[in-house]
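**Backbone shape codes:**
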Amino acid sequence: MQLFKSLLLLAAAALASAKPKVTFVNQDRIPRTVFFTPSLPHAHLPDFHVGAGESKTMEFPSQWIGQWWAKPQGQPRLKEGMLGEVSFEANEGKTFFDVSGIVNPTDWHNVKMLYPAVSREPTSGCNDFPCDNVYWFPNDEQTKVTPENHLICTLGDRPQDRKAPKTSRRRRGKGMQTE
């Protein structure tokens, strides 16, 4: 029994000492740049590049609070998109997070979902926008909480979520033509 308690405390200490991090999972063929905006007085973070179809993990400073958005690589940082927002190791050491569409509710192809890496629940955001699992309005009750400090942020469209191109059919002689 004492050994079990010691192992449990050791595991809890290891989790508590692990740096907060987010694994960015790019689900399509578009390389992206992730831009960060910290809440004051938290540290500014450098832009982060995630290649097409790539997963990359970024470590954050302890108790970091802020947001990020993504753009296809090469596009300017000027206009924010759908936001990933996080408060690491906040109240009782928990992580609070959400996907927010308040700033730019039409950016449906960059930040998609946020969720804890191990439990995979709760989730914020969706793969097919618009949805009701996003923070759309001030005072929305969409902020999620987890004891984990490693989150997954999906970027881009999964292959099964991509819309097929529209085709139109016009009569041309005896057959049909697709545009």
About this structure: The chain has one domain: 18-160.
